[in-house]
Amino acid sequence: MSHRNLFSVTMLLLLFSLVACGPRPAKRLQSKSQRHGLAHDTKQHLVSVAKQYEGARYKYGGEGPKSFDCSGFTRFVYSEVGIQLPRRSADQAQFGKKISAHRAQKGDLLVLKKGRKVQHVGIVVAAKDEGLWVTHASTSRGVITENMSSSPYWKSRIRYARRVLP
Fold this sequence. Notes:
- 33% of the residues lie in helices and 28% in strands.
- By secondary structure, it is an alpha+beta fold.
- It has one domain (35-163): Alpha-Beta Complex (endopeptidase fold (from Nostoc punctiforme)).
- The strands form two sheets. The protein has a six-stranded antiparallel sheet. It has a two-stranded parallel sheet with strand order 1-2.
- Strand 5 and strand 6 (131-138) form a beta hairpin.
- The protein is globular, with a radius of gyration of 23 Å.
- The N and C termini lie far apart (51 Å).
């Protein structure tokens, strides 16, 4: 082995030993209830952000904060809690864990289709016995919150939800 290679190997070993033996940050253990509380806080923050933009106008290709299309709205809101969604609704419909719509919870992404094509996405802000309340960017009314389960227009288009938050 040449002196140059021996020196390189020695330096790598020295660097490795410094990194391996250096101080480690203390692990912060969380109880199950603390983790649940953190997730609840994130969901609540997401819902608060979504509702803050109610009344914003609809604009095809709009990404906020003054105007949105449906996927621009969901992408914008989720980014406020540190989650980067894809831009298009069809891509968002593949993001996170797929769950049935009747298991959707606050903070989930609701996917709506017409036929086999993803038509729309929105954010579940409440899941109650009477239905799924979703905040979304409607082409005719801008950003609104409505019960998709009782809407004559949306009810038949609900397909599934995506669990995006941990």
